[in-house]
Amino acid sequence: MKKVTMLDIAKMAGVSKATVSMVLSKRDHSISEETKNKVLDLAKEMNYIPNSLARSLSTKRTGTIGIILPDITNPFFSSIARAIEDEASLLGYNVIFCNTDSEINKEEKYIKLLISKLVDGVIFIAGGESENSVIMLKNNNVPFVLVDRYIDTHEEEYGVYALNKEGVLQGIEYLYNKGNERIAFVKGPKNLELSRQRLDGYEYSMNKYGIYNKKLIFEGDFTIEGGIKATKEILKSIDEIDAIFYSNDAMALGGIKVLLKNGFKVPEDIRVLGFDNIEISEIFEPELTTVAQPIYEMGKQSCKLLIDVIKGNKVENKQIYFQTKVIVRETS
Ligand code: RIB
């Protein structure tokens, strides 16, 4: 069946194609109500679907934003993506999700794809050494907002972040005040500034309490598997341990499985603290105590900020920082 065009509607309505175009693109202030209604009724009756590519070539807008995420299977990213999509549709934008698995070549391929698709802007959660990805966006004048993961471009970019170091300070203070001193720390991926910020918070606060011991620091990668691996390492190399602080909830959940399988009781024998406050943390058994990031709000604000930038609206602050807070549950 032939696709209905504006010319078909014009012929049926007995008006010019230009009139139909003005009515359908709401540039119809000089057109009578009668003609406007006739055109709109016909477009509906004939199931007319606007050609978005043709429209975007004329308006230089596609009404679409791209979202680049490192790992859609991690509930932190799927929750933040959900918040962005909710806000985008409220503001009349469609979204294109790109999952990079934190692989830089995949990330750069998606950046090129989004640029070629003429997206109006990009919300970018970097997978690692993503400087080149950001340079491509800047070189193509694509508005973007960095979220969660800071990338140093030697310029102040639009960004939405949690206060990571302060979040870890809160976590250690909480554990210390409950009598925990031998607190192991499982790091995030080493190629992320955010992992260094969280480690910095751990080292600063452990030194402040005079209980720092670098043997209590273990490698991690933000995955459940990574949490399992790190916890087995901790049990193998450390005799006495009071608590384990994981740099994200996914690793903490993996770690709890290992502790329980090895006969430890949580929290009686070992306390566990995570970071994120993903939804499953509350329903997991035992329920996970964690340093909560305001995930939904971060996603919502990043979308609002990007669309303000796209529209050229006045922006108060180029960077928005969110406080974290300790959510106390059963594992501590
Ligand atoms: O759980 C995923 C982690 O990666 C979170 O801590 C978030 O901050 C992201 O960077």
Automatic annotation (TrEMBL):
Molecular function in Gene Ontology: DNA-binding transcription factor activity; transcription cis-regulatory region binding
CDD domains: HTH_LacI, PBP1_LacI_sugar_binding-like
Domain HTH lacI-type: 4-59
Keywords, ordered alphabetically: DNA-binding, Transcription, Transcription regulation
SMART domains referenced in this protein's UniProt entry, alphabetically: HTH_LACI
InterPro entries per UniProt: HTH_LacI, Peripla_BP/Lac1_sug-bd_dom
PROSITE patterns linked: HTH_LACI_1, HTH_LACI_2
Keyword Transcription regulation: yes
Name of protein: LacI family DNA-binding transcriptional regulator
Gene source species: Clostridium thailandense
Lineage of producing organism: Bacteria, Bacillati, Bacillota, Clostridia, Eubacteriales
